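2024-03-11 09:14:02 INFO worker-7 job=invfold-0412 stage=load source=structure_tokens
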């Protein structure tokens, strides 16, 4: 897929020049809709190489499962041994395992691979029964899941019924039976923290990392008009929300979700990004599901799932819908000067730049208020100017600023409703899929993506994302996209040629021996690149 090196990726876990490898250890679906068959379709759509190890064989159609037969633990072990010698995985996805012995084989191989230095991610799709009602696990296998497999997991992807089963909360009188998904996720993690008889090996520092949880909600009839999944991970926690796809054909959605997440982890994405991508892939697969047989037909995983903004979920703490922020007066932002004083605001405006951000990181009152007020006045006196105040949203609101620019770390403390109601334009910084999903939930006036290039202007924990990522987001997002970090006169033309609405610039202006000449060169370069893009 064209966004393989998109925002938030780390370097691939696979050897250089090779596709990442994902093992699917699951059941074979004779109807071709779920299990190993669905896993392979999802892995191929993502662009990784999928290997399969058959843990169980099912006799099933689109309407029923008539028989489930686990393979022997010895045969499963032989399959994994053959793969390990030639195609060790960057991630493993498990589905239907069939027996306690098979589960233990999987645990031994996860431990062995990690002990050999392979940073294997483990995605557990706890397939505990079919959607038609056939149970796949007994109490002993359920106990083995909880005590042995889950402690080794990177991510678990149960639906609500499976989460209740793992928590032994199926009975209507259980305190957790009617609990919301966030509480179920917390309970699953808390149960893990209480300890088990058989732990997964710790890392080099003796630390056990608790698994992330994605409780999928596509089958939850209480979600009115929405398919809402709860994500709880080290990077992000919240609802991943999209309008429900109206289809009777949904066989294989859980397999597609978990397999895509495994493919993303194998490719170097963090867990939160992997789950966002899984949500996108599954939604797209539902849109292309088709009828076959007399029951629910299969979903169809396709490789263009990242190319449609309709698949990009909203990541937010509550399931409520949001009202969009006002559009920019001039959406073609052009060169975007980021400066730290009112004097610099006046200077870049005088040089012809019309998009400016006042970014004062170590404010001193009352100087800060005066700087913001003076900058606002300068912008208001300049036709076509759009001034954004970085971080200091209360003063921006109080002093009548045109716009505010915020980082992800600010979103939990800002009164977004007050800004929206006052007509303030909002720009948001993003560095990964999950941050874009969080920004997209708010429908801001523009979204900034980066770092595009390496920069020394501020500490950046993110690797440079490059022009391909900027081109991707500029093509997918229906709001203006700003490229940030490391941009100067030598590369601004390339940035503009991606179709981005703007290139944010800091040191290329403020550290130049001739700032006015630097502004002119940047504007000329951006104009030339924008002409190529059009």
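2024-03-11 09:14:09 INFO worker-7 stage=emit residues=534
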């Amino acid at each position: 897929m064209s966004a393989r090196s998109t925002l938030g990726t780390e370097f691939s876990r696979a050897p250089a020049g090779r596709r990442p490898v994902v093992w699917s250890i699951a059941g074979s679906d004779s109807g071709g809709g779920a299990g190993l068959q669905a896993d392979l379709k999802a892995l191929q759509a993502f662009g990784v190489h999928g290997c399969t190890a058959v843990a169980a064989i099912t006799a099933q159609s689109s309407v029923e499962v008539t028989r489930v037969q686990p393979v022997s633990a010895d045969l499963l072990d032989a399959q994994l041994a053959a793969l390990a010698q030639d195609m060790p995985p960057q991630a493993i996805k498990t589905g239907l395992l069939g027996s306690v012995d098979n589960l233990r084989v999987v645990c031994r191989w996860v431990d062995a691979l990690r002990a050999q230095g392979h940073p294997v991610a483990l995605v557990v799709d706890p397939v505990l029964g079919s959607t038609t009602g056939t149970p796949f696990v007994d109490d002993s296998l359920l106990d083995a899941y909880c005590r042995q497999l889950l402690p080794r997991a990177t991510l678990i992807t149960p639906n609500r019924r499976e989460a209740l089963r793992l928590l032994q909360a199926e009975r209507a009188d259980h305190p957790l039976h009617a609990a919301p998904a966030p509480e179920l996720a917390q309970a699953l993690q808390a149960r893990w923290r209480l300890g088990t008889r058989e732990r997964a090996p710790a890392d080099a520092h003796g630390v056990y990392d608790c698994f992330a949880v994605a409780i999928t909600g596509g089958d939850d009839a209480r979600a009115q008009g929405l398919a809402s999944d709860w994500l709880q991970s080290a990077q992000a926690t919240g609802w991943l929300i999209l309008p429900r796809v109206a289809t009777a054909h949904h066989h294989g959605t859980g397999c597609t979700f978990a397999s895509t997440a495994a493919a993303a982890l194998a490719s170097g994405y963090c867990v939160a990004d992997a789950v966002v991508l899984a949500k996108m892939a599954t939604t797209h697969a539902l849109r292309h599901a088709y009828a076959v047989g007399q029951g629910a037909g299969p979903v169809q995983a396709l490789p263009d799932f990242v190319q449609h903004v309709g698949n990009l979920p909203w990541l937010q703490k509550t399931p409520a819908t949001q009202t969009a922020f006002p559009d920019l007066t001039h959406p073609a932002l052009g060169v975007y000067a980021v400066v730290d004083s009112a004097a610099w605001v006046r200077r870049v405006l005088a040089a012809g730049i019309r998009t400016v951000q006042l970014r004062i990181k170590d404010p001193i009152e009352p100087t800060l208020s005066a700087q913001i007020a003076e900058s606002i006045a300068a912008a208001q006196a300049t036709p076509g100017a759009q001034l954004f105040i970085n971080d200091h949203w209360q003063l921006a609101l109080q002093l009548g600023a045109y716009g505010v620019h915020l980082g992800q770390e600010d979103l939990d403390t800002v009164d977004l409703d007050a800004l929206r109601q006052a007509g303030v334009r909002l720009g948001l910084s993003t560095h990964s899929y999950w941050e874009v999903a969080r920004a997209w939930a708010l429908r801001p006036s523009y979204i900034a993506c980066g770092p595009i290039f390496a920069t020394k202007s501020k500490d950046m924990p993110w690797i440079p994302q490059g022009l391909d990522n900027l081109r991707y987001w500029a093509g997918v997002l229906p709001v203006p996209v700003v490229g940030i970090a490391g941009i100067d006169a030598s590369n601004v033309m390339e940035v503009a040629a991606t179709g981005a609405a703007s290139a944010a610039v800091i040191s290329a202006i403020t550290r130049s021996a001739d700032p006015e000449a630097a502004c002119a060169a940047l504007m000329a370069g951006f104009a030339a690149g924008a002409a190529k893009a059009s």
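2024-03-11 09:14:09 INFO worker-7 stage=report msg="DSSP finds 17 helices and 18 strands in the chain."
2024-03-11 09:14:10 INFO worker-7 job finished
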